[in-house]
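Section 3.1: Structural characterization of target chains.
Under the original work plan, the team committed to producing a structural model for every single-chain target entering the pipeline before any wet-lab resources were allocated. The record below documents one such target. The sequence was received from the expression subgroup and is listed exactly as submitted; it comprises 645 residues.
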Amino acid sequence: MSPTPLRKNVFLYKKYRDNIIIFLIALFASNTAIGQEMINFKAFGYTPKTIPDSIYHQLKREVDIDKRLDLIYNIGITHAHAGTSDSIVFYAKRMDSVMSHTKQKLSNYNLHQIKAKRLQGDGMYMNGLYENALKAYIEGISIVKNPLKHPEVEWLKIGLGKVYIQKKNYKKAKELFHECLKSAESEIIAQANYCLGVLNFRQNNITTAAVFLDKALAHSGKSLKLILKVELYKGFIAWEEENNDEAFDIFESIMERSLEHDHYDIYTEAVLSFGRIYIQLERYDDAEMILTIAYTNAIQWNRLELQRRVINGLRRVYSVKGDYKNAYNLMTQYLGISNMILKEQNNIVVKDLEYKYQTLQKEKEIFELKEIQLVKQAEINREKTIRQAFLYGFLILLIPILALLYVYYQKLQTQNQLNINQKELNNRKIVSLLNEQELKLARTSLDAQQEERTRIAQELHDSIGGNLAGIKLRMSNKGRLNEEEQGIILQVDETYKLVRSISHDLTPSKFHKNAFTTLIREYVESIKQIVDFSINFLTHPEEKIDNLSETIKVQIYQIIQELFTNTIKHANAKNIDLHLTIYEKTFQLLFEDDGKGFNVAQIQDGIGLSNMRNRAAQLKGELVIDSAISRGTVFTIEIPLEEDL
């Protein structure tokens, strides 16, 4: 079986990835003009060196385990400041490896564990693996049983709050940041204010966001990276308020200072901001160059989420410029990276950890109650001691009997569980067979309905319509007609027109009279009249799409109607992209929204999804769904075309 276009392009991307990087390094010192000034953009064909060799030599010579772990942690934090996520995760694993072999020799094992979880969470967060980051942060917080404040735990709470922002759980994020505002550490307070500024910016509370960002600057001290991050969002605010020159100056300043002090992740974010601005200004060539540089850096540092964001921007640029071949290839890379991110997540474990974290938050209250209970417990223990003396003799006799009963009970439980599992398996098979049969019946019913409608239309038009036309002709040829006969001819003529109208309604005549892309464009415009979100509809090549067979047009039109209906009812989206493309004898439909998304593994096909899969299958095509909670949804349908159009 030959690979699908999706698998083929992902394979080619992986195969030639190094060549792409080498080519892009040729842009090492690219520049573009803003007004009368030139701004330099830098692509890295290597991972920038941020750690002096002397630190590595010191680590190699260090024999004290606690000091060795502190050195590893400091190297990881330095990589976190530079934004090299893979190195952060590497040194987190290295801390775990050292601790697993030397636990008994450590004077503060829990503290080192917390630090390792912080590094792991920061690295996963930078790579867009938010579920794994959430897991690491919660595991770190759970290590500390004492309810007193702990600076390293507060850093974990900052990280956890940032994950909740990405998951759009703003309520939980806000609670964590306000807890951190009570910290004794000025740096923690600055980070909490910055995160509250980001949170309010995401919710379009621009004025409140600016207030928190100013507070973050006031507490930032000498933390240049935090200052640069705050200024980055001040640039976003300036752009939102249409202070374009101010925004450009801010982003350019951030790029210069972040390169000077090795903050490469901030540098790439500033470059990406320029790319977004150029797209809005419709300067697509400049946007393409800048986003390509950002993509080079994202690939070099293996920042999956950053790659995904840049690819999406490039895909939009190529679509607007009419370069549908590159847009198609980038779309397959986008789906591939999305799948890579999804495979790294572990939702079930994270949910258990979230519950555990919420439980730990209540331990402070429990801790205070325990002091009161200790006094009462001492009195109860004295009474128990007296009673236990009488009970021990009796229990010695009961233990062998209870042991036998327990073994027998366990055997019954095991057998019962086996019976339940077998019953569930049988029920699943029955449901699966019923669903399969229901789909076959629905497909057969749809085909039969369409065939019967066509047959009735032909009979009405050819037989009854022909007979009525003949009657009218014969009566008209009789010569002079009286008033009654003329009335009959009029009735026959009206009946003939009615029969023709009914026969045309039974067949999809609109696909004969109008171009297919025009029909869809009119349908999209009708949707825009009833909703308040943006719809972007692109086709290429339009002539070939208009020449598709009637069977494909009818099925695709009905699938598009179903996609819009589901999105309007369930997605809570603000933007929709609909692309129709024919490339190398393959028709592709791409439907993307930025709504709330869903877990593909847990969703069950309803009637709408079943109908879409069924219609795609009738055309020998395949429906692929890419979605995750708070990350929108992408529907892709690929249909092979047997003939050249």
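The longest strand covers residues 575-582.
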